[in-house]
Design goal:
This protein is an alpha/beta fold. 29% of the residues lie in helices and 24% in strands. The chain has a single domain, classed as Vaccinia Virus protein VP39 (Rossmann fold, 3-Layer(aba) Sandwich), CATH 3.40.50. The chain has helices at residues 10-31, 45-54, 77-84, 96-108, 123-126, 147-157, 171-174, 222-231; strands at 4-6, 67-71, 88-93, 113-117, 131-137, 158-169, 195-199, 214-217, 235-242, 254-256, 259-261, 273-279. A 7-stranded mixed sheet has the order 4-3-2-5-6-12-9, with helices on both faces. A 3-stranded antiparallel sheet has the order 1-7-8. The chain has a two-stranded antiparallel ribbon with strand order 10-11. The termini are far apart.
Length: 281
């Protein structure tokens, strides 16, 4: 079953997802091109894009010298990139294998970073201190069932005046049939109260396969995402929608500068990403 709505408890879904992400670690360690970080000027493509969006909304117009907490950091390429432009970084993830690779990468390239193993929905209790920036980007909140709890962690981690940043796949994109010959809705845009069950042994990077192929994701509309952040007490200072993705959602997508996009005739029909920047006053 792919994308089927199922009733499953959070702990069971979380356990299946963690097994899947543990399996992804060696595949992504090989596929992410970590050797590129031997160049001290190298930054991940995700962070290069996100810095351009984030820094104009920071009081200092730079992350240099700021305390930054990266939620759902995976193997740390983006976390290490933020450290390279001067942030004091803490990476948070629920995969111990991913954090081991992240710590090894940071140590190898001489980057100082703190790594915390915890579910993002329990981040405030597990992470010490507070932060100028809380950051998450690309493929993150679909793994979470409770966005009000997620937003509460963000507010709990930020100091007054701090900034939250997210860029992720657009909910309208996630509702599309990735196999259809045209832009066709197939999956829920709005939250249904159920998870979507996926059985897919591939990952978005590399050619290997995982042993634990079953995962669970939750649809979240833009109104749900924005509403959770606003209810938590954040003030939205920037919102944007983008036409390109850093991964190939569909085989029909074509490679363009900065990632992948729909064929040119369809490019203005539907957004691929959204970006939200919010502040805790």
């Amino acid at each position: 079953m792919n994308g089927s709505n199922v009733e499953i408890g959070w702990e069971s879904a979380r356990r299946a997802n963690q097994e899947n992400w543990e399996d992804r670690v060696p595949l992504h360690e090989a596929a992410y091109g970590l050797d590129a970080f031997d160049d001290p000027d190298h930054l991940s493509a995700v962070v290069r894009d996100d810095l351009d969006a984030l820094t104009p909304f920071l009081p200092s117009k730079s992350v240099s010298g700021l305390e930054l907490c990266h939620l759902q950091c995976h193997i740390g390429t983006d976390t290490v990139s933020f450290a390279r432009v001067g942030a004091r970084v803490t990476g948070v993830d629920f995969s111990p294998s991913a954090l081991r690779v992240a710590a090894q990468l940071a140590a190898r390239v001489g980057v100082d970073a703190t790594w915390v193993e915890t579910d993002v929905l329990d981040a405030r209790a597990a992470v010490s201190g507070d932060f100028d920036v809380v950051y998450t980007s690309i493929g993150t909140i679909c793994w979470l069932d409770d966005l009000d709890k997620w937003a509460a962690q963000i507010v709990g981690l930020l100091r007054t005046g701090g900034t939250f940043f997210i860029r992720d796949g657009h909910p309208a994109l996630n509702a599309l049939d990735e196999e259809a010959p045209t832009l066709t809705a197939r999956y829920p845009y709005f939250a249904t109260g159920h998870a979507q069950q996926w059985d897919d042994a591939s990952t978005y990077a590399g050619t290997g396969q995982v042993a634990h192929a079953r995962t669970y994701e939750w649809p979240h509309s833009l109104s749900e995402i924005l509403g959770a952040l606003l209810r938590a007490g954040l003030r939205i200072v920037h919102f944007n929608e983008g036409r390109t993705l850093p991964w190939r959602f569909s085989e029909r997508m074509v490679e363009v500068p900065g990632g992948y996009a729909w064929p040119e005739a369809e490019r203005d029909l539907l957004p691929c990403t959204y970006t939200i920047i919010a502040r805790l006053d």
